[in-house]
Every structure is written in structure tokens, then in C-alpha cells.
Amino acid sequence: MRYYLAAVLLLSTFCLAQTAKPKTVPAKSKALVACEAENKANSDGWMDALNQWAITMDERDKLREANANLAKRLEQVDALNIKIVAFNQTIIDGHGKLMSDYAALVTKYNSLLGQANAAIYEANSRLEMARQQRIANALTMYSLMPKYTPLPMPPPPVLNRTINCTSNTLGTMTYTNCN
């Protein structure tokens, strides 16, 4: 826009200097009228070209400003990319350390599990041997014990009872009384 104002100011002083009227105006010839018309058309075209040039310069300035903003943003994106790459490397390094620590823990766990299984097997073996020993001791004690022979049972006592019965007949009925 500033170029446009400079061009207008320059042209207006140029035109004012050329169009200063003398005190007496002679009659205009056809050639002069044609020349003035051509000069006016040229100056209008020149003004249009200057306006177009000023607009183009304004657009160029806006594009340069936009490019500067984009360059700043690109620098910010590059800085963030550097941080992201560093962060990713930290994650990769941490992941590697975690995996090695995990592998060490798995190895230690498997070792302890093997020791625990061996201890359980040994304890079960001892328990089985103790159980077998208790059974053997019980069988030995049982074999040393005297055999149980029950006393013979006396025969049941015989009850000798004398029964005294009397019968009475009364008609067709008989009554029996026993003491």
C-alpha cells in the first residue's frame, strides 16, 4: 500500500507540473486533443499498472510474512522432533533395561521354583518314609502282641420251674389257671 501512495504522489506532481495552464489558452488542434487523449489513456494505464504493482507488492509482503511465520513454525516443529527423537531413544533404552531386568527376574524365579520343587519332593519323600516306618512299627507291635483268646462262655443256666395249672370247665368253656 505504501508503494501505491508513493506512486500517486509522484504522478500527481508530474501531472500538475505538465498541466499548469498558461494565462491565455490557445485553441486546441486535433492533434493536440488526440495527443492529450493518448496521454490520458497512457497515464490511466500507467496508474492501473502502478496500482497493480502496489497490490502485487502488498501480496508479496504478506507472503513473505507468512513464509517467515511458517519458517518459525517449522523451526518449532524441528525442535519438537528433536525432543521426540530424544524421548523415543530414552523409551527404547528404558525398554531394553526393563527387558534385561525382566529376563534376570524370570531366571531367578525359575531357579527359586526349582529349589522349592526339590524341597517339596524331599519333604514328601521323608513324609512317605515316616509313614512307611509308622506302618512297619505298628505291624511289628501287632505281631508281638499276644493273640486275644476270649474266655469260654458258660452255658446258659437252665431254669427249672414247675408249673401248677388247674383247669375248670364250665359248660363249653375251659378256664386254665397257671401259677
Provide mean pLDDT, rounded: 82
| Low-confidence spans | none
- Continuous helix count: 2
Oligomer: single chain
Give the N-to-C terminal Cα separation: 157 Å
Main sheet overview: 2 strands, antiparallel
Report the order of strands and helices: HHEE
Radius of gyration: 67 Å
* Derived structural class: mainly alpha
Number of strands: 2
What strand line-up does the widest sheet have?
A: 1-2
Shape, principal axes of CA atoms: elongated
Helix content: over 70%
The fraction of residues in strands falls at 5-15%
Would you kindly provide a written description of the structure presented here, covering whatever features stand out?
With 179 residues, the protein is mainly alpha-helical. It is 74% helix and 7% strand. It has helices spanning 2-18, 30-144; strands at residues 165-170, 173-178. It has a two-stranded antiparallel ribbon with strand order 1-2. Strand 1 (165-170) and strand 2 (173-178) form a beta hairpin. Helix 1 (2-18) runs antiparallel to helix 2.
Fold blueprint:
Layout: H1 2-18, H2 30-144, E1 165-170, E2 173-178
Antiparallel strand pairs: 1-2
Helix pairs in contact: 1-2
What's the short version?
With 179 residues, the protein is mainly alpha-helical. The chain contains 2 helices and 2 strands, in the order ααββ.
Summarize this structure as a short list of keywords or feature phrases:
single chain; 179 residues; mainly alpha; two-stranded antiparallel ribbon; 2 helices; 74% helix; elongated
